[in-house]
Amino acid sequence: MTHLDGADNDQAKGPDHGPRAAAREIADAVESLTDLWTVAAQEAALRLSLHQLKALRAVADAPGLNLTALAERLDIGMPTASRLCDRLEAAGLLERGTHPFSRREVQLRLTLTGRQVLSDVAGRRTQALAAVLGLLEPADMVALGRGLRALHLARGAASKRSGAADPDRR
After folding, report:
1. What is the pTM of this model?
2. CA 18 centroid distance within chain
C-alpha cells in the first residue's frame, strides 16, 4: 500500500499528516462537493431524485439497456428498478421499447426531454463547480489537478491489486 507520508501510520509527522488525515480532508471536500452537486441538480427545471438522475445517466450511457442491466448498474432490486422506470416514463423522460431481436426483452431509451434534463443538470453542475474553482489560486488549481489525477491512478492500482471490478464502472 502506498502511504502519503512514507510511513505506515499517521504518527510519522504528527496528527495532521498521513493517509488518515488526508482521507478526512478528502471526505470533507467530497461532502462539500456532493452538496454543491445536489443543489445544482435541484435547481434544474425538473427536480429529480438522485436515483432518478443515476437511472437517466445509466440509460444515456448505454441506450437500449434492459431493466435487469439497469438494476445491476444501480445496485437495486428489479421491483425498485421497474417502479423507477415507471415514474421516469410517466414524466416523459424515458421510454420502453421491445428489443429488435427478442420481443420478450424491453429496452430503455431516453426521450428528447430526458436528454434535455440531463444536459440541463450537467450544465448547472459544471457552472456551480466552475464558480467554486474560479476562487482558487492558479497554483492551487494545478495542485488540485495533480492530486486528483494521482488519486485516480492510485484507486485504479488498488482495484487491480485487489482483483476488484473496474473502478470506473459506476
Report:
1. 0.72
2. 27
